[in-house]
Amino acid sequence: MNILFSIIMPNYNSNYLERAIRSVLVQSYSNWELILVDNHSKQSPSTFINELNDPRIRFFSIHNDGIIGKSRNYGIKKSRSDHILFLDSDDWFLKNKLVRLKNEIIQKKPDIIYHNTIINYQNNKKIYKKSNFYKNNFYLNVLKFGNPIFNSSLYVNKNILHAVNYISENPKKVGWEDFDLILKCSSMSSNIVKLEDFLTNYWIDNNNFSTKEKFLSYILKIKKDYIDTNVAFNGMTPFWISAPLIKKNMDNFNYKDNLKILNATVCYNFLDKAKLMSFLIINYYYFLSSKFINFLKKNLYEKWF
What we know:
The chain has eleven helices and eleven strands. It is α/β, with parallel strands linked by helices. It folds into two domains: about 5-205, Spore Coat Polysaccharide Biosynthesis Protein SpsA, Chain A (Alpha-Beta Complex); about 210-305. The longest helix is centred in the last third of the chain and has 35 residues, at about 270-305.
């Protein structure tokens, strides 16, 4: 079975584009097309693409208006295959990725595949990240525990992407459109396979960190769109969503609001329950301490001095 893989790569001013492309060129499986969708970078990749002179690399340039979903959807619709992979322009594949996916597709015919990922930091630190796999009700478990899938580790059959109307281009979902896609796809199909292999490198440097404020805004939008409207949670919030909100309030000494969040938080494993208990103890301690100090100030210090 000679599977053609369509690899979708959006780009905008990436310093690591050549590394990403070369990781596709050296694949041990050669039946692929790389669809590079550039958002009018300051230095166009077209010269480098022309020098490679590989007909499997197809280059397009669009204005995506700051919505990366537009670039990915453009690439998906230009693809010649039903077998869709994503590769961000600062990440890179391991050499055996495509052949490993091909074998899995032939054997199991899944709609969605993902795998473990190597996280690479600018200071040369590496973390071999083993992603969780949820055997039952993948969709609900993603909401309970968070998204286990790195975008550059994701394979999706194009029929599923078409069924969910592709990646969201809603400006309100910019920054978490990948998470939204996983939820949409897993609600459409439970035919999901996770490989234990480490097949993609994920790159982190100072340029691709979201600010804390942006990350918290994404968390709150996910909560509003997917958690608050889901009867399975009965008005409660999973710990993975509450945790960053709690930490922010602790940084701002806002222990009173934290107690409200903690009382509306639900945990689904022992580790989260232990963390929740520690948060409760710390916040109650500081909340009661602050009330006691305010009492002393009001009733002693202000009266006597």
